[in-house]
Amino acid sequence: MTSVQHTDDRSSPCSWLVENLDLLTAGSEVLDLACGRGRHAIFLAAAGFGVRAVDVDGEHIETVRGLAAERGLDIDTEVVDLEIEGRGLGEGVHDVILGIHYLHRPLFPALIRALRPGGLLVYETFTVDQALIGRPRNPDFLLEKGELPRLVRPLDVLRQREGEFDGRRVAGIVAQRRPREPGDARDD
Questions:
Q1: Is residue 3 part of a domain?
Q2: If I label 117, which of 59, 81, 129, 177 is the partner at 20 to 30 A Cα–Cα?
Q3: How far apart are CA 139 and CA 175, in angstroms?
Q4: What sign does the dihedral 102-108-114-115 (CA atoms) show?
């Protein structure tokens, strides 16, 4: 894996992802949810991860495709509305799911099901305290204090943080689906 340096530039990956990169296994397949213009997808693909980037905005997806082509990176991209009721993301198919600055609470059960045994959910988004200093302000897009660990149950929390980081008030978590134990029934 390549060495990574982080800056607070809004085009750079968020510090939560960079700080937890050591938990990601080289060559893992990553699903980047609500990828926006692709800063995390580009970062991860350049670091040697397989990346699938999805977003509801077709212009964002075209931007990711263009950036990937410019840099010679292979990123699977798709326009996907993650907020369609009953949205599935597969069963036990992703090594890593990344969600940065996106919150749609009904999606969490699908995220958990979509992780492979041993897979990681790397997530960070805004808390209600963010509304005191800027956007977003809509409570639908803001976590309550201590809410994120509850949303990811029954995953095992490996790391978490909550507070002000990089000028934003956020909560972050890295949670893992339990690896299969010998003798467990197949669940994917």
A1: no
A2: 81
A3: 24
A4: positive
Please report, for residues 34, 59, 121, 143, 173, the alpha-carbon distance to residue 125 in angstroms, rounded to integers and kept in the order given: 12, 22, 13, 7, 9
Q: Contact at 8 Å (CB) between 92 and 187?
A: yes
Q: Are 94 and 137 in contact (CB under 8 A)?
A: no
pLDDT tens across 104-133, in order? Answer: 999 999 999 999 999 999 999 999 999 999
CA distance 66 to 88: 27
* CATH code of the domain containing 151: 3.40.50.150
Domain membership of residue 181 (yes or no) is no
Q: Which domain holds residue 58?
A: 15-176
The structural domain count of the chain equals 1
> What pLDDT digit, counting tens, does each position of 16-50 carry?
999 999 999 999 999 999 999 999 999 999 999 99
Domain for residue 1, yes or no?
no
Kindly state the DSSP code that residue 179 receives in the 8-state scheme: P
Other beta carbons within 10 Å of 69: 11
- Looking at the domain assignment, is residue 60 inside a domain? yes
Closest CA to 51 of 116, 82, 97: 97
Query: What letter does residue 21 receive in the DSSP assignment?
Result: G
